[in-house]
Amino acid sequence: MADQNVPPRRPRDDRGWDGRQYPAAGDGHRDTYAPTPYGHDARAPHQGGHPEDTQGQYAHAGHPAARGPQWVGPEGFARQAAAPSVGPGLPNLDDGDEPGPKVGRRKALVALGGTAAVVAGGAALAMTPQIRSLFGDEAVAGDATGTTVTDGTPARPSGQQPSTVRTYTEQNESYMGSRAGEALKKNAPAGGRTFSGPAAAAAETKVTVKTVLAKDPILHLARRATFGVTRQVVADIKERGIDGWLRWQLDPDKIAPTKAELKLADLPTLKLGTAQLREQREQLNERGAQPEKEMVDATIARQIWSQRQLFEVMVDFWNDFLHVAADFDGGEVYRASFDRDVVRAHALGSYPEMLLAANRHPALLLYLNQNDSRADAVNENLARENLELYSVGVDGGYTEKDVRQAALLQTGRGVNDGKYVFRPERHYVGKVKVLGFTHANASKDPKKAEAAIDAYITYIALHPSTAKYVAQSLATRFVSDTPPKSLVERLAKSYSLNKGMIKPVLMTLFSSSEFWAAVGQKVRRPMEYLVATYRALGVSPEASPKHDNGDNKRTPYARGLRQIHDRMRELGQYPMGQPTPDGYPDVYVAWTSAGTMVHGWNEAGELLAGRRTVFTYTPPEKLVARPPATAGAYVDALALRLVGQKLSARERSLILGVAGVAAGDKVDATFDGAVTAVARAILASPQHHLR
After folding, report:
1. What are phi and psi of 72, to 5 degrees?
2. Which of 57, 94, 122, 442 could cross-link with 590 by S-S, CB 3.0 to 4.6 Å?
3. How many Å apart are CA 665 and CA 669, to the nearest integer?
4. Taking the CB of residue 276, how many other CB atoms lie within 10 A of it?
């Protein structure tokens, strides 16, 4: 059994941020079904007033990573240990209301999925609130590049590299330093080359890693470039070819919206701009409408039903990399605009332009307290995260002195009356030097001062360390938890040559042998598991004929999306849900929890049983058009339908054990009453947990 211990958490200096990750008891807009949030994590809702009129705080309690059951690595099942005990806090694995045999069902299901790693909390870091450094009054233009810095402290003197922080990439690497991470590293491809295109790379690459997944390039591309394999995605790739499908996905504006995307009109606040959300704040509160939650609801809908799958994967990637939490104090007004005007506007475009747009957006300026920063009382939060999280990374070569000078340069930017403003009276004037960037910064004139700030932001966005940081993060998302250095170097070179344009970097990635050789090297995180389950089961966004619309405030579709959203919160991951600016970790060993895994399986059972009547489901006995007459053949057919491939002999045997039958036994279309349990067990297999 793999050792799930991870390195001890390291405090991140004296930073923190405001936001609530879980629904508070007073949250409106809830469903009667919606699960009760974890009481110990509930956070108080915003108590009124406008966020730009308050001084932000950083606060978040760390969530320790739970020790999970035996894990599924790329080879499938590790050496089988005793089935983990299911404590009183976990759901019942048995389907008590289903007819048919249940011989050994609990034991078999735990044995099957107990090796599949999924999620729970994990990577959150403890923060403490503190207002940043104070500087002397500015009388004339100064020079921040000198050796004397007035705000140093014995605990953190000027020039000290902030080596105790953890960034999006660095936290991934830290988790991979555990024994479980070392085990994964041994099975990862070591190196490779770039071909003339993705199809050529797929054809010429031999998969040598050990994995339970089929070594089928079409399935591999569908798993990595979408939120889950569907029959339609496989058919589209076969019809267009690998190169043609990727070209199609990389031009999302030409992909027509699906019916589910058109139904997003059921979420009324999505239509409102920032000014309207501010003006209608009280009315929306009275109606129980929560714009920041409806934005998350819409994101979930797009992940499940949009045909723009690669675009949505990249939106999710940037929401972790350039992260602003949905639930920060002010998110209800500003976060939807950040999603639309920053992340989605540039997800497949230019990262330097995305970072420039982010640094002028009220959501980021309020989230990281830039609105509080002025020349005589500088707040470092945004300046620090621009370096540490959003560009060069913690190992990018900057010092505490660089952070302070960047913070001085960025003074003057803020929010007023809901809009971005530049306040020249708050701007520091004087020479600055950050990571080799030097500017006289000699004027308070808004055009000149903002030009200086934009020049700096562009400089760090194109810095070689940023190129490597983005490359490492993309390779971790699409290839493996331990991507080969050869690939990271080539991606970084593509980023630099193309001035931060993302499409060429992605084409370099998909044209690499490392990508095509890494079959089975990623494990789905909890949100990804749930979305992939909806996609695999072909859930339709239309309400079931059995649905009784007892809620006149919202449509069944809107309520259904909120139910998925609430379940994701229970599982510990949902779009834009990380309260801290580092985003969710993207490596397997950060997401291991028996409880979360069981909750995911049981949600799959709820969908198979059609209990969410806000949506329409394919009855489990009709998932296979012509069910075979014998149990073993039926399991094979269900596996092909749900995960795109047959299972191993061991997994097939375990699933037959869930139903309490032998492979040669005759069964009807309902699997003699056990088809829901059998299908759920397939969705608990490594073939569904791995991407």
Report:
1. -100, 110
2. 122
3. 13
4. 14
Tell me how far CA of residue 412 lies from CA of 105, 365, 530, in angstroms. 63, 11, 43
Which residue from 270, 7, 9, 259 is spatially nearest to 127, judged by alpha carbons? 9
Tell me how far apart the alpha carbons of residues 44 and 304 are, in angstroms, rounded to a whole number: 31
Any bridge partners for residue 433, and if so which?
A: 438
* CB neighbour class for 669 (10 Å; exposed up to 12, middle 13-18, buried from 19): middle
- pLDDT above 90: residue 305: yes
> Residue 82: which residues within 8 A CB-CB, separation 6 or more?
none
Q: What is the CA radius of gyration of the chain?
A: 25
User: 47: buried, middle or exposed (CB in 10 Å: 19+, 13-18, 0-12)?
Assistant: exposed
d(CA 42, CA 123): 18
Query: Which one-letter amino acid corresponds to residue 400?
Result: E
Structure tokens at 494: 């593509």
Q: What is the pLDDT of residues 491-533, one digit of tens each?
A: 999 999 999 999 999 999 999 999 999 999 999 999 999 999 9
Which pLDDT belongs to residue 558? 93
Q: Which residue has the higher pLDDT, 125 or 66?
A: 66
Closest CA to 339 of 366, 316, 371: 316
Helical residues (DSSP H) of 350-484, grouped into ranges: 351-358, 362-367, 381-388, 400-409, 446-461, 464-478
Which of 105-114, 239-248, 583-592 reaches the highest mean pLDDT? 239-248
The total of other beta-carbon atoms located within 10 Å of residue 629's CB is 12
CA 222 to CA 242: how far, in whole Å? 10
The Cβ of residue 172 has, within 10 Å, a number of other Cβ atoms equal to 26
Beta strands 72-73 and 430-434: pairing type? Answer: unpaired
The whole-angstrom separation of Cα 361 and Cα 415 is 8
pLDDT digits (tens, 9 = 90+) for 348-400: 999 999 999 999 999 999 999 999 999 999 999 999 999 999 999 999 999 99
Report the SS3 class of residue 154: coil
Neighbour tally for 96: CB within 10 Å: 6
Position 404 pLDDT exceeds 70: yes
Cβ contacts of 338 within 8 Å, gap of 6 or more: 324, 358, 361, 363, 364
Q: What is the rounded distance in angstroms from the CA atom of residue 69 to the CA atom of residue 594?
A: 6
